Amino acid sequence: MKQNIYDNPSFFNGYQAMRDNQTGLHQFVEQPAILSLLPDVTGATALDLGCGAGGLCRKLIELGSACVVGVDISRNMLALAQKDAPAGIEFRHMAMEDFTAQDNTFDLVVSSLALHYLADLETLFRRIHGWLKTPGTFLFSMEHPAFTCAQGIHPDCIEDETGAPLYWPFDCYSDEGRRESHWFVDGVVRYHHTLSTILNSLLRSSLQISAVLEPVATPAHEQKQPPLKTERRRPTLLVVKAVKL
Amino acid sequence: MKQNIYDNPSFFNGYQAMRDNQTGLHQFVEQPAILSLLPDVTGATALDLGCGAGGLCRKLIELGSACVVGVDISRNMLALAQKDAPAGIEFRHMAMEDFTAQDNTFDLVVSSLALHYLADLETLFRRIHGWLKTPGTFLFSMEHPAFTCAQGIHPDCIEDETGAPLYWPFDCYSDEGRRESHWFVDGVVRYHHTLSTILNSLLRSSLQISAVLEPVATPAHEQKQPPLKTERRRPTLLVVKAVKL
């Protein structure tokens, strides 16, 4: 069964409260990193895998994309996404691994903070390679292997006697696969993939790596949200741009 | 001043004892990973940056390379390297960052466990791109960013009450640069580079990434050297193959 945690009411409420509170990881770290690597999308046909509430789909339309297909497994998230969605976006309710398309359909495939819910990256990467036109871009963010490796195995962070972060336990790196932890609710499942698996899966899918980011916030955003400073100490996010040439 | 720790007698003795003892990281983890990514070297002209005792230079000749240039800053290591060296190897006594060559000279540039002693990778990577013929291969191993990030800042490993490894402290990841720690002697300096810096420095030097490994030992070798099992929990090594096309 594919996990659809975003349709769990307790999770959804916690997640929405986090987004409304703007803890900033998405707004100040992830989105700027994605936007910094986005190619010119004027007139582009784009696919957003795990589009959630549709923010990146809207952004792509705003930046000139001709049409965007947004795919998400959560009815809750798609209901948010469809509210006042501009023309040019088509939302599809399904797991990203069930999506199919004709070869050579998209100029751009994006995926924001969704791929760490997937056990098998390479099968999807090979499909994405097929769906992309030549040239085409695949740009994604996911949880960083240094963040996922010990999730649910050790405490996320070891604190000093004042409660400040001392360091982050690192372990079980080569043991890829399922990690279960508490995030708003118990039993949220993500999959740990090593960096070499992520990158070699792209390469084996005939995609060329063109940039890798481990983004942090700007000093100004860190002042607004001091917890973001810890991103410099242990990155949460990995952002990769790959191209079909 | 460039560090020449291998000519420090205490360090050199400790290092030689380690190599003679075959703790196995070099023999069972690093070398197999490098050899697994080596292209066909028949007739090749190769450069080995930080060649140490010349093992990889000899291996390249054994595998059919026509000539190999080995560069190392340590007279101690080069003295070992020159003992009974086969024809076809030329050793040069200098820091790898001082080496110069004509453009389009080498089919292959290798560097085994040396680049973590270098503060500025990108300048060297750009030079390597120039020295390589088209097509050409640059294959290197270096200490893994998850290993270097907290070196000299936190204990390398946190142990449980029985002395077994519990986890490895991870910290200071984005704070690139000098790390000083004890390795046979005090004050051994290495430089921490993030994974994104290592990979983007290659890409900015017009080198394409063709494989990334975070190698571990085989179960058989782990039986011979049980401490090698910890490589599965926290990798020490990163191996990257890049190509000039």
Structure keywords:
alpha/beta, homodimer, seven-stranded mixed beta sheet, 30% helix, 11 strands
Q: What is the beta-strand fraction of chain A?
A: 25-35%
First-residue to last-residue Cα separation of chain A: 35 Å
| CATH fold-type name of chain A | Rossmann fold
How would you classify the helix and strand content of chain A by structural class?
Answer: alpha/beta
The helix/strand series of chain A, from N terminus to C terminus, equals: HHEHEHEEHEHEEEEHEHE
CATH architecture of chain A: 3-Layer(aba) Sandwich
Helix content of chain A: 25-40%
Largest sheet of chain A: 7 strands, mixed
Number of strand segments of chain A? 11
Radius of gyration of chain A: 18 Å
Rough shape of chain A?
globular
Quaternary structure type: homodimer
Helical stretch tally of chain A: 8
- Going by CATH, the homologous superfamily of chain A would be Vaccinia Virus protein VP39
Mean pLDDT score of chain A: 94
